[in-house]
């Protein structure tokens, strides 16, 4: 059973571009992590200041292993070895779910 881990980021309007640029130059390490299934950065359309970082994992254990290792390196920020700047997000909360049902379009893999 896959698990979904969503990091909920509070991002003030003037920090949106900074946040999106940081993700654009993100480490890209998560793609190589065991049990990683999906990532999306979700920008709010309804006038809130809440971005969602959606990730899906094969299991809770795979997510924990990522958190304890590659996650830390992937959050050094800035890309290309730049030093850590002030966080673009003013707050964060981790949401956890398990996938109980799913569907895709007919004919898709
Ligand atoms: C303290 C709270 C957190 C903040 C403020 C934050 C913010 C960020 C930012 C700005 C980036 C872009 C790279 C960088 O500049 O470091 C990033 C990367 C990422 N974050 Fe977070 N993050 C936090 C915790 C988490 C957690 C708990 C998850 C778990 C769902 C997560 C998932 C990811 C993923 C998957 C990436 C891309 C890593 C890669 O490409 O290898 N983050 N995060």
TrEMBL record:
Stretches the record annotates as Disordered: 72-91
Every ABM domain range: 3-94
SUPFAM superfamilies: Dimeric alpha+beta barrel
Record-linked InterPro entries: ABM_dom (IPR007138), Dimeric_a/b-barrel (IPR011008), Heme-degrading_MO (IPR050404)
GO molecular function annotations of the record: monooxygenase activity
Annotated keywords: Monooxygenase, Oxidoreductase
A matching Pfam family: ABM
PANTHER family per the UniProt record, alphabetical: SIGNAL TRANSDUCTION PROTEIN TRAP
Name of this protein: Antibiotic biosynthesis monooxygenase
Species for this entry: Streptomyces caatingaensis
């Amino acid at each position: 059973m896959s698990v979904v881990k969503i990091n909920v980021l509070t991002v003030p309007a003037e920090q949106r571009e900074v946040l999106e640029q940081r993700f654009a130059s993100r480490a890209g390490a998560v793609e190589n992590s065991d049990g990683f299934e999906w990532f999306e950065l979700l920008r709010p359309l309804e006038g809130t200041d809440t971005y969602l970082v959606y990730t899906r994992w094969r299991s809770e254990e795979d997510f924990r292993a990522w958190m304890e290792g590659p996650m830390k390196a992937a959050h050094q920020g800035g890309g290309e070895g730049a030093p850590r700047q002030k966080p673009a997000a003013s707050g964060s909360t981790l949401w956890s779910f398990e996938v109980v049902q799913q569907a895709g379009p007919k004919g898709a893999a």
